[in-house]
Amino acid sequence: DQQVKQNSPSLSVQEGRISILNCDYTNSMFDYFLWYKKYPAEGPTFLISISSIKDKNEDGRFTVFLNKSAKHLSLHIVPSQPGDSAVYFCAASSGYALNFGKGTSLLVTP
Amino acid sequence: DVKVTQSSRYLVKRTGEKVFLECVQDMDHENMFWYRQDPGLGLRLIYFSYDVKMKEKGDIPEGYSVSREKKERFSLILESASTNQTSMYLCASSLPVTGDQPQHFGDGTRLSIL
């Protein structure tokens, strides 16, 4: 059963605007949440994470928001750039392993 | 920078063959992982290892085994390859258990079973 869900398979945003990628989870025992970015023919690269005791973490253009009561997190990219076009995976941790969502393909158009 | 190296980028094998996928990391990480990535299914964990000679099953271990004889190397073995094991295989490594220690991934092996 999928414990981490990314319900939007794709998203298209204009350059300079905000990209918002969403993720829902079902397991309240997850203690960390991470976002990975993946380009074709490359492995995923770590982008940003957030502890379950926080509700926001910011790193440059990237901000992750966590709403524990709703079991929902989101990744905001501001401003979006064409180089941000990639597949974004949400992941949640409870111990050794990560549970990944199915990914959202982001396209940033000029 | 962490370097996770997978021995092959592309591999073509036949059904019934025994297939070895090799992964090496250079950061002395305790944890190593094997995932497969399929369209519409995301990344699914096959096996992981938290120490030399230690292994744990992930979500989809059937048809696979692993070997970790040295800390830096983690091998995935397809005992008798089948066409449904055609996929992108990704290896990752990380420091020991703390949730915010990100896993570092190799570039993947695209395996085709004919």
Poorly predicted residue ranges of chain B: none
Helix content of chain A: under 10%
Radius of gyration of chain A: 13 Å
- What share of residues are in beta strands of chain B? over 45%
Distance between the termini of chain B: 37 Å
By DSSP (H or I, 4+ residues per run), the number of helices of chain B equals: 0
Number of strands of chain B: 11
Strand content of chain A: over 45%
How many DSSP H or I helices of chain A?
A: 0
Compute the average pLDDT of chain B: 92
Keywords:
heterodimer; A: 110 residues; mainly beta; 6-stranded mixed β-sheet; globular; B: 114 residues; 56% strand
Describe this structure in words.
The complex is a heterodimer of chains A (110) and B (114). Chain A has 110 residues and is an all-beta fold. Chain A has no helices and eleven strands. Chain A is globular. In chain A, strands 2, 4, 5, 9, 10 and 11 form a six-stranded mixed beta sheet that branches. Chain A has a five-stranded antiparallel beta sheet with strand order 1-3-8-7-6, with no helix packed on it. In chain A, β7 (62-67) and β8 form a beta hairpin. In chain B, the strands form two sheets. In chain B, strands 2, 4, 5, 6, 9, 10 and 11 form a seven-stranded mixed beta sheet that branches. Chain B has a four-stranded antiparallel beta sheet with strand order 1-3-8-7, with no helix packed on it. Chain B is globular. Classes of the chains: A mainly beta (110), B mainly beta (114). Chain A binds chain B through residues 6, 9, 31-32, 34, 36, 41-46, 49, 51, 89, 93-98, 100-103, and chain B through 4, 9, 31, 33, 35, 40-45, 48, 50, 56, 58, 90, 92, 97, 99-100, 102-108.
